Amino acid sequence: MILFTLLILIIAFANANVEKIIFKGPESILIPLEHPNLDDLRIDRISPLHWSLRTQLSAEFPNDEAKKGKESWFLLDKLKHGQRYEVRVCWLATQPTSFRLYTHTLPTVFQTPNLITSLATFSESRQYPLEDQATSQHLTSETPSQSSILFLQIFAAADYYTMNQTLMKNVPPVDVDIILDPYIWNVFPRSLVPTAGYIALLAIGSWFVSGWIWEWLSKIATVDPEARLDVKTSTDVKKDS
């Protein structure tokens, strides 16, 4: 029964790919209000409360300027210091793509020239027109706050070959789900709790069922030998007649 369940799970995930990174939440830092600040970057945020993001990531074939593919940036916000997390990128197998995930602390990004340049380039591509900035969902907080945050850097490299020259020159964006999954007691991901509970129920149920089957077989094996002999004798008599 358990093997059958595992087979169903394998089939369910056969049509999707997953890439992930495991990390721990850094120490909390004071988020400044002075501009420019994190809100001005206009990048999507993922937090334990808003732990899933469905979006499209730009991809490209690796080249001399982008050996790992196209870069995208996200902000992991409201983490807990010392808490273990994992971020998963899930995408369809029908969109062959190679992903690489990296996390960086805020000081690391702002002190590393190539990282801050990459983040600035991505941020510029995310800027809204002036008339739309007032209605943007990335509004600046009114009061300073402390938060444990990390930057998430994702490289997306096209991983296919086709005779269609249009697809070779213009790589379509990849539909992905980006999931932030905290670990319970820093041991196993929270998303596995329902699966673990289901397997536990199957194991308990299988134990009771196996006990009932064993009891039934034991009763058959301990039938009175004389009764079995009478049954055999009556059968032989019928054959002779």
In short, what is this structure?
With 241 residues, the protein is an alpha+beta fold. It has 7 helices and 10 strands.
Task: Give the helices and strands, then pairings.
Elements: H1 2-12, E1 16-24, E2 29-31, E3 45-46, E4 52-57, E5 70-79, E6 84-92, E7 97-104, H2 106-111, H3 113-125, H4 130-133, E8 145-158, H5 165-169, E9 174-184, E10 188-189, H6 193-221, H7 225-240
Parallel strand pairs: 3-5
Antiparallel strand pairs: 1-6, 2-8, 4-9, 5-8, 6-9, 7-8, 9-10
Amino- and carboxy-terminal Cα gap: 48 Å
What percentage of residues falls in helices of 4 or more residues? 25-40%
Computed CA radius of gyration, to the nearest angstrom: 29 Å
Runs in which pLDDT lies below 50 for 5 or more consecutive residues are 1-14, 130-140
Multimerization status = single chain
Percent of residues in β-strands: 25-35%
Describe the main β-sheet briefly. 5 strands, antiparallel
Structural class comes to alpha+beta
Question: What shape does the CA trace take?
Answer: flat
Topology as a string of helices (H) and strands (E): HEEEEEEEHHHEHEEHH
Average residue pLDDT: 81
Number of strands: 10
Helix segment tally = 7
